[in-house]
Every structure is written in structure tokens, then in C-alpha cells.
């Protein structure tokens, strides 16, 4: 017999853009929403478990379009957890779910451990945010490389290669010396070898120089392979030119298009993004963080201020923006490492934008500060992400036929951004999550605590 649950007397904000429904009822059975609407229009099935949500607000489960579940990539932790990186993914997925992220999209990490963790969570063997993953950034080397962590001569070459191979699977920077056809063939093999959900490739480097990696011909080949295999594709870009190439190649989503070094996005390129409604995974940060960065890290502030200019233009021009944090789960052991994001992971940094469990709340606050309409903020954190990743048939809104993923808040999220952190319950797949058990035992991560 199916388990039927009815949430009653809530204010429903379903994520479609429709106005809130007062005194609403949401009925779910076997993890799927079966009926929603005002109490006088929705009948509660006989025998249903009724949950009184008087005074509460029901919204879709929140999402993050760009997260990294295995990213505490200091050399000591990479060695310590070698052979069991999926444990870090489980920890991060738990922390995400605890704070209302019912679905996340992992855009860089070791494919095999991530797929193992993904499948265990999807099968109900472990509790955590539902996630989809890309594995490595196609064309970049692994975490013990110049692309990510400059280990120098500290480790012997074979040790670094062993770790990097878990990420690269033969598809590191060696690809840039191949022909476009051979690059396409390597991508086909990578997809077959990993079972990832989508692809992210490097249109430009990850070493801050902004070098272009793949030619326009090669980028089009990459996109063609992905589309032929039924996979969505996005690119890592860091300059105006790499962003232009990504768009012209036919990418489905734009990964951090706001990052264009010290050159703002030209008007013509911005118009293309808006007209085509290309989903923009933009890294918003709060005013307080920007103010701190300008004083503490002036060398980094100039590029971040250009990014902020781009983000304000996205909102002003009506671009389709997605909540994106680039966040990962970390704790004191990672913060202690002087070689990993020095000065950016210290406790003194205000409004840390890249911590799983906290970053999405800060993104929402930043979007609010930049004048995004409250309903658009909610949709950017839910339905727009589901649409962009092609998951809107089952995720993203509180409507019949969708997975019963919801966050129940004690305060109106359309009234103030901090109300997103006033969580009464998180529901994933029709099950009310016991949040007290999530993150109770940690490996590397700090629990950021309730956000108000």
C-alpha cells in the first residue's frame, strides 16, 4: 500500500512563478507530488498522514548548479583518502541536504568515486542531496598538477600521476596537442569509461593566465559529441574571448560567464546571452564580501568587481541566472593548509561564498542586494536550474508529477533573503529528512550551522 502524506495549511510558493497560495495543501505518494492547491480544492485521501504546516511556507527543494563534492584537494587529504574519495562525496552531500539543497550538480571531481556515491544516494543506500556529475573538467589535469595545486618537488612523479589519473582518465592537458577528431574520440571514450551525467570542458586554462585551450573547431566537435550522446555540455571560461567561443560552439549552459578577468562582457555578447536565454551559472557574492576583498585582497578585487558588474548586467538585461556557488565542504584541516587558497578560507573572511551548507544562502542574499526580484531569486535557485539541466520533467517545482522535494520554511522567502535559512523541515523524495543526523560525524567538513 502506498504511503500518502498531506501537508496542510501552508503558504505554497511552487516555483513556477505563480503567486503564493495561502492555506494550501500538498499531497504526495511514494515520493511523488500528486496534488497541490488551496485547501478548498484539494481533497486529502483517506488514510493519509496529515502534517499541519500552519504558519509555514513550502517552496521547491533548493538546487546548486555548480558544486564540488570532492574538492578539499590539499595533498595530505588526497593521500589520506586515496581509494575512498566517495566518503568525502557522501559527507558533502549530507551537508548540502541538511541546509535545503535537495539536488546539486557537481561540475569537477573524480568520476568513479562520484558515480559510486551518486548511485548509492539514488538507490536510497545513503542519505544526501541528489546529485549529477561531470567528473573531470575535460582538458585539465588532476588536482596534484599545475592546474590546481602546485606541489613542486614535494611528491615523486609517480605519486602525483597516480592521484591525477583518478581525475583525468587520459583526458588532461595532453588533449590540446591532438587533432579535433582525436579530441572528439577521446571524449567518446571518457563518456563510455565514466558514466557521467554531463560534460564540462576547459575553453580556457585554470592557472589564472586565461590562455585558450581548445580551438573553435575542437570546441564544436566536443559539443557535437555530447549532443550525439544525449549529454548537455558546458565550458570553464575565464575571459571574454573564451566565453564567446563557448557560446558560438553551441554550449547548453554557461559556467561562471561572469568571470572575464578585467574586461566586462561587451554589449553585443551580452545581447546574445540574453536573447538566447542561455543559462548563466553566475558566482554572486555579497556586498560585505566585496568590501572585505577590496581591502584585504586588492590584487583579486579588480577582477571580482568586473564579475560583479557582469552579474548586475545579467539581472538588468533579463538573463537567465542560476544559483551557483562553486562550493565545497571543508573544515579546519583544510583551512590550516597555507598553500590552499591562502587568506580566502580563514575564519575572519566575512560571508564565505564557497562553503557547502552556507554558500547558497549567501548567493541568495547577494542576488537580493543586486535587485533581483524575489520570485526570480527563488526560481534561480530551483526551477531554472532544473530546466537548464533538462531535469524539469521530474524536479524543480512543487507541482503534480514532480519528485516530492521541498523545503518548509518558518518565514516568507519572498519577504527577506535570510528567511531561506529559517528552515523547519527538508523533504526529499517525500521523506522528511532527520536533519539532526546529517553531518553528525564529519571527516573534513565543518558544519556551518543555521543561517539567519
From TrEMBL:
The keyword Hydrolase applies. PANTHER family: ALPHA-D-RIBOSE 1-METHYLPHOSPHONATE 5-TRIPHOSPHATE DIPHOSPHATASE (PTHR43135). It comes from Spelaeicoccus albus. SUPFAM superfamilies: Composite domain of metallo-dependent hydrolases, Metallo-dependent hydrolases. It comes from the Bacteria. InterPro entries: Amidohydro-rel, Metal-dep_hydrolase_composite, Metal_Hydrolase, Metallo-dep_Hydrolase. This is Imidazolonepropionase-like amidohydrolase. Gene3D superfamilies: Metal-dependent hydrolases, Urease, subunit C, domain 1. Pfam families: Amidohydro_1. GO terms for molecular function: hydrolase activity, acting on carbon-nitrogen (but not peptide) bonds. Keywords: Hydrolase. The keyword Iron does not apply. Residues 57-433 form the Amidohydrolase-related domain.
